[in-house]
Amino acid sequence: MSLDKLRTNPEIIKASVHHIKSENIDQEAKSVIDQLNRAGFDAYIVGGFVRDSILGLKPKDCDVVTNAKPEEIKTAVKRTRIIGRRFKIVHARTGRKITEISTFRSSSKKNIKKSQKGILLRDNNFGNIEDDAFRRDFTINSLYLDTKNMEVIDFVGGYEDLQNKVLRSIGESHERFREDPVRILRAIRFKSKLDLSLESNLEKNVSRLSHLLKEISSGRKYEETLKMLLSGNSQSIMSEMQRYNVTEYLLPVTQGYLNSKKDRRFIFNALKNTDKRFQQNKTLTPSFLFSVLLWPALINKTGDLNSKKVKISKISRNANLILKHHNEFCFIPNRIQKSIKETWEMQIMLLKIPEKYKITLKHPRFRAAYDFLLLREKSGENLGGAGAWWTKKISS
Ligand code: ATP
Ligand code: MG
After folding, report:
1. What is the C-alpha to C-alpha distance for residues 246 and 346, in angstroms, rounded to an integer?
2. I want to staple 53 with a disulfide (CB 3.0 to 4.6 A). Which of 20, 315, 343, 354 is the partner?
3. 291 compared with 356, residue with greater pLDDT
4. What residues contact residue 360 under an 8 Å CB cut-off, 6+ apart?
């Protein structure tokens, strides 16, 4: 069906066809929708939950969308907070869990503020559900689940694309990427995560327009890099990031080392571990990830760190230089930088055995530093058996 026709006459997919189970919807999202409905508003689940559930995958979270404006959501739903400037959204908190609630938006040209380069600076231009469906990034992310009757509403042909495992931009991808270059990274992420093929124009534009990522703030690039590499399929995402030329904008310090056999082995060993930990529901920390990604640069500057004689002050100095360079592109928050430096400095402390072992063992970053040391050994470094020594020590 043509898109124009779908806009006025959306496809409705019944529960018996899409098989999303009501019991899989978070209680928190159900309660948010219930509160909005009781205040007289419409509310749906949209995005990742609907997409992943249809594919039979376990969704990360439930995003709620409604015709209530942020202030109205705040009145209708308990324990909420309005966040964001570019896009005002509302967070509803239940214990430690946060449910994101957004208001239907329209991509109509008025009231949208763009930079000279066409980047969306502000978009609090509200609309109805049809408008909202067309301002989303990809068709598969624009499916609305009506929890009252468990029907999925599709204005953009996303259900069919999902069946065919195709990622398709809503509107011209070159325009959509100019408005918000982060969509380039989202395309790469969804491709890897969901094993999709990119529609041919989208495929071309992802690498052709990767330079637009220069326009994104270094803080947002950091957040997106984490989403890509701490999502359980970091090995394939890293390879795709290289293929689509985005590493130079996100990981400029790491980029050159990805082509060295030794460094690549180290980084991919770590990513493999990360993916395995993700599957096992173990914690994944940004500091460990970046300790790995920036390690080859540290070694290049400092020389091998395989002797207890190496001065820790030298590591600190070089660490600061490397982090400074990296932060220009992809800004790591200060407390994470501190943990990265500690993990690196501890690599020397871990070699001071047995003499200093009690102090090292008590250090709050001991576990991360020890895991890091094991990873180095696994990737071929000779550290005189330090890993085995510590393994024995902590298991005795
Ligand atoms: P995930 O499983 O990672 O949460 P998601 O698709 O739900 O995937 P979110 O970042 O939670 O991603 O966003 C929710 C929805 O908001 C998306 O599905 C999409 O419809 C819309 N969206 C998010 N980011 C953008 C963007 N940069 N441009 C347009 N639409 C977006
Ligand atoms: Mg989501």
Report:
1. 32
2. 20
3. 291
4. 346, 349, 350, 352, 353, 366
Per CATH, the homologous superfamily of domain 3-164 is Beta Polymerase, domain 2 (3.30.460.10)
Q: Is the pTM of this model over 0.85?
A: yes
* Cα gap 91→100, rounded to integer Å: 5
Ligand in nearest proximity to the CA of 155 = 1
Question: What is d(CA 182, CA 224) in angstroms, rounded to the nearest whole number?
Answer: 8
| Ligand 1 neighbourhood includes 181 CB (under 6 angstroms) | no
Calpha distance 261→278 (Å, rounded): 25
Mean pLDDT of the chain: 94
**Is the pLDDT at 7 greater than 90, yes or no?**
no
- How far apart, in whole angstroms, are the C-alpha atoms of residue 351 and residue 386? 6
**Given a cut of 60, is residue 111 above it in pLDDT?**
no
Instruction: State which of 186, 202, 212, 228 you would mutate to test the pocket of ligand 1, scoring each by most atoms of that ligand within 8 A of its C-beta.
Output: 186
Residue nearest to atom 4 of ligand 1 (CA): 48
Burial class of 212 by CB neighbour count within 10 A (0 to 12, 13 to 18, 19+) = buried
CATH class of 236-395: mainly alpha
* Site of tokens 């540290």: 298
pLDDT (average), residues 99-115: 80
Separation of alpha carbons 369 and 95, rounded Å: 32
Condensed to tens digits (0 to 9), the pLDDT of residues 214-246 reads: 999 999 999 999 999 999 999 999 999 999 999
The closest of 229, 383, 209 to 306, measured between CA atoms, is 383
Contact call for residues 157 and 6 (beta carbons, < 8 A):
yes
Q: Exposure of 282 by Cβ count < 10 A (0-12 exposed, 13-18 middle, 19+ buried)? A: exposed
Catalytic residues: 61, 63, 137
